[in-house]
Amino acid sequence: MDINQLNEHFGLPGVLVFHATPSGLIHADITTPHATATVYLQGAHLAAWQPAGHQPVIFTSRKTELVPGKAIRGGVPIAFPWFANRHDGKTGPSHGFARIQDWTLVFAALAGDDLHLTLTLGPNELSRSLGFDQFRLAYQLTIGRTLTMQLTVANDAGAPLVFEEALHTYYAVTDIHEIAISGLDGVSYLDKVDNFNKKLQQGDITVAGPTDRVYLDTTATCVLKDHAGKRHINVAKTGSTTTVVWNPWEDGAAKLADMDPTEWHEFVAIETVNAAKDTITLAPGATHTMQARVTVETVES
Ligand SMILES: O=P(O)(O)OC[C@H]1O[C@@H](O)[C@H](O)[C@@H](O)[C@@H]1O
């Protein structure tokens, strides 16, 4: 559907309006009674969410290139069917193909004060060229005072579907030096900045250098204590047993052409994932659902 058709079929005056970037990327601009948000059809990519009375919760880089076929830097990229680099000996784009494909909007409605959107992705030329031709994805977003992101994978093949997945959420923070993340105390992680060595988390996570950690076997809710504890962002999840925490720090950010050199101060990624030893093997005809649920609270001192 083009923009006119999207606005005609799904538009809700004052609540859901579709626009396009000069390069042709279509995005839904959303205003509910309790939040604003932006969702691009490419990648089903949530690029902004701000509940009323709060600062923006989702970070998107000022330098992201909004062009077809290029992953948006920030927001919530959906990684599928692999996380980070492909590791079956074949080549393919970082974090898979789902985040650089156009998804189809199939449902939009205001239910109470929340906007519900459903986008779908099936096999296409790119996915087939990478060996994935019998799957379907459905992404259900509920946008309001709470943000719910739910990804369902269906295996239409006669053989098992092996995949990794992530809701690679970039959270906006006041300053990376002032954050702490609780919920992963006692959880083992692979330290990607130390040759994937397996380590044990002790206490809260603070970020004081390049951080790229794959926490395994955890279904825990994480609390991102932002602005020296004045704001809490709660990230609860189901259907996910991996949590990734990532910040590239100064040197890593300098290597990212689509990130301003100072922006690494302004976000931390807490990702709802199934990867590494938590990779999913889905039986023929089966489905798998992973959900992240985000709430924000201001903490009185
Ligand atoms: O630059 P990309 O492909 O968006 O990936 C960003 C980062 O995503 C994180 O989830 C990975 O753990 C990192 O290793 C990776 O660098």
UniProtKB/TrEMBL annotation:
Pfam families: Aldose_epim (PF01263). Its EC number is 5.1.3.15. GO terms for biological process: carbohydrate metabolic process. It catalyses: alpha-D-glucose 6-phosphate = beta-D-glucose 6-phosphate. Keywords: Isomerase. InterPro entries: Aldose_1/G6P_1-epimerase, G6P_1-epimerase, Gal_mutarotase_sf_dom, GH-type_carb-bd. It comes from the Bacteria. Coiled coil: none annotated. GO terms for molecular function: carbohydrate binding; glucose-6-phosphate 1-epimerase activity. Transmembrane segments: none annotated. GO terms for cellular component: cytoplasm. PANTHER family: APOSPORY-ASSOCIATED PROTEIN C-RELATED, GLUCOSE-6-PHOSPHATE 1-EPIMERASE. Belongs to the glucose-6-phosphate 1-epimerase family. This is Putative glucose-6-phosphate 1-epimerase. It comes from Tunturiibacter psychrotolerans.
